[in-house]
Amino acid sequence: MAVTDEAIEKIKGMIVSGALRPGDRLPKESELAAELGLSRNSLREAVRALSLIRILDVRQGDGTYVTSLDPQLLLEAMSFVVDFHRDDTVLEFLAVRRILEPAATALAAPRIDAGQLDALEAQLDALGAEPSVEQLVAADLEFHRSIVQSAGNSVLCSLLDGLSGPTTRARIWRGLTQEDAVGRTLREHRAILGALRDRDAEAARSWATVHIASVEQWLRSTL
C-alpha cells in the first residue's frame, strides 16, 4: 500500500471508530504523524486528498477539522466525477435516475405540504406555454429537486442531485430537436403534480417513471 493510501486509511479509521467526530479538530501535524506512525509528508498528502472529497476542512491559520460529514456535502464529490462522463454512458445515468427518482417521488406523496405544491404549480404557470429550452431545463431541475427534498431522505436527494449533471445536456438536446418536447414535459410535470395533490404515491411513481423514460427512450433512438 502506498504511504499516502496508508495515511488516508488511518485517518479514516479514526473517523469511523469515533476517535474523531464531525466538527473535531485534528491534532497538530507533528503529533498526529507520530501517533499514526506516519511521515509528515504522507500525512499532509492524505489530508489534502481527504479535503478534496470534503471529509476534512483545512482552515488556514486555524487547523484541520473533520467536516459535518453530511451526505449532501460528501456526495458533492460524486457530482464532480459524474461531470466527466462520456456521451455513450449518459443512458446509464438516466437508467439509474429512472430507478431512484420515481421511488423518491412516491415517498414525497404523503409528505409534501400544500404550500410546496402551490409553489410548484405557480412555477409551472409562470413558465407559460412556450418557455425557452434553458428556462425549461432550469425549471425541470428545480421541480424535481423540490419533490425529492420532500421525500425526507437526504442521501437519496444528494444522489439524485449528483446525477442531474449528465441528464441536463440530454434534456437541452431533446428540447432543441424533438417536436413538442416542451409541451410534453409541462404536461408530465402537471400529471406528477396532480398525483402528489391526490396523495397517490403509485400514480406519482408511475408519472415520474414515464417522464424520465421518455427522455431515455428518445436519447436511445438518437445515439
TrEMBL record:
Statement: the UniProt record of this protein carries the keyword Oxidoreductase: no
Occurrences of domain HTH gntR-type (ranges): 1-69
Top-level taxon: Bacteria
Pfam family, one: FCD
Entries under CDD domains matching the protein: WHTH_GntR
Key words of the record: DNA-binding, Transcription, Transcription regulation
Entries under PROSITE patterns matching the protein: HTH_GNTR (PS50949)
The protein, known as: GntR family transcriptional regulator
